Amino acid sequence: MVYRVQAAESLAGEIEPPGDKSISHRTAMLGGLAQGTTTVENFLHGEDTEATMNCLRSLGVEIHVEAPCPGSRGLRLIINGRGREGFREPRQVLDVRNSGTTMRMMSGVLASMPFSSVLTGDDSLIKRPMRRIIDPLRLMGAEIYGRDGDRYPPLEMRGGGLRGIEYTLPVASAQVKSAVLLAGLGAEGRTVVHQPWATRDHTERMLQAMGADISVSDNSVSIAPGPLNSLEINVPGDVSSAAAWLVLAAIHPDARIRLRNVGVNPGRIGIVHVLKSMGASVTMEERASAGAEPVADISVDSSSLSGVSIRGETIPNVIDEIPLIALAATQADGETEIRDAAELRVKESDRIATTACELRKLGADIEELPDGMIVRGPTPLNGANCESHGDHRLAMTLGVAGLLARSETIVAGHECVAVSYPGFWEDLESLRTG
Is 297 a catalytic residue? Predict the structure, then answer.
């Protein structure tokens, strides 16, 4: 399946991005672990989050889904929490589809459960490394095994009988941190996780709101076992989805776009800081928070950009947006260097290789590095036949590029955006004004 994108002379409009994918996953899992009924508004209606709900249902959690409320693109969920003691052994293999978040965080949930389970996924997911969660969960006492030397899914595990540990993450990863913290909820004694750099803290915020015994100090998080209270949660818009329109407005010569109700968790708005450092005209207007998460409206106008260096502790906060940053760099004066991003090699695609390959088709000057890339600009973009490689982030990047490129851009495999942003192509077309 292909999507054809024609250049737009001008762009304007307002978009409310879909509910945050990372937060939606966490509301479902923590709501299932809580005592009582958790209500979630604006839950992302995507393939990844559906996989999480299906896994929880197989474990005995009752989740009732209602149609989107008026003025909301997301779902309303009623989760009847069972507490850790109420989870049951699944009768079948748990299929996380393409969701690495589900695989890693659900492993943390299952590690403390006194029964056996198997987690698997689609052809792309089972090629993604899982040793980084296997190692700490084994140290806590879980029996967990993977394929090919315990490196890849499917993961087989027998949980229960965990003990708290003090663990230093070898790489900054919010998903691995969250897996260990979730396992720590059912362990004996305290669990402490040290991070090389701060990562998104959605799990910590939600656990604090649900009454967990958790403390955060600098780049360390500590949690003790105990029950969770139910919550009413309103999921803010996903800044990683909003990033497509932030970059589009900044690089298009005639654009003004406003994004409404966007979650601006400090660990997630690296894309805003990077665009501002490149010279983009970005303004944020804070709104009332959505539970424990800060929210804002963000506006971006056409801008003149300059190349920058992106590396180190900035990378974890922009890891999902790097294909879009590379696109922005094609229209910036000078050289943009992206380093310390080897994690991109094991996403839904090898995002370093696929981003460089596809943007080159459009005329970009990109040098691929082992842990990132160098982009030299500005270069004019010309339409081409492009491939998403089954990667939703890359598909959205190519769609945005098509609105800027001369002549038609064809995106093969465009339907993969349903993983995180089912309405992406409709929103893209809604911005055309000429």
Answer: no
Place of tokens 């991003």: 341
Give the phi and the psi of residue 197 in degrees, each rounded to 5.
-140, 155
DSSP 253: S
Question: What gap in Å lies between CA 211 and CA 209, rounded to an integer?
Answer: 6
Distance (Å, rounded) from C-alpha 160 to C-alpha 186?
8
Evaluate whether 209 touches 291 at the Cβ level (below 8 Å).
yes
For every residue of 264-331, DSSP letters joined together read --TTTTHHHHHHHHHT-EEEEEEEEEETTEEEEEEEEE----B--EE-GGGGGGTTTTHHHHHHHHHT
Question: What dihedral do alpha carbons 23, 25, 30, 32 form, nearest 10°?
Answer: 140
Is-contact 245 15, C-beta < 8 A?
yes
Residue 67 pLDDT > 80 = no
Q: Count how many Cα atoms sit within 13 Å of the Cα of residue 398 in the half-sphere of its side chain.
A: 37
pLDDT per residue over 167-218, tens digit each? 999 998 999 999 999 999 999 999 999 999 889 999 999 999 999 999 999 8
pLDDT digits (tens, 9 = 90+) for 7-37: 999 999 999 999 999 999 999 999 999 999 9
Mean pLDDT, the chain, rounded, equals 95
Helix H, strand E, coil C: the string for 323-334 is: HHHHHHHHCCEE
* From 48, 95, 201, 320, the catalytic residue: 320
Q: If DSSP codes are grouped into helix, strand and coil, which group holds residue 379?
A: coil
How far is it, in rounded angstroms, from Cα 233 to Cα 220? 26
For 81, 246, 327, 332, 387, the CA distances from 409, given in Å and listed in that order, are 47, 20, 14, 21, 10
First vs last C-alpha separation in the chain: 26
Cα–Cα distance for residue pair 181/185, rounded to 1 Å: 7
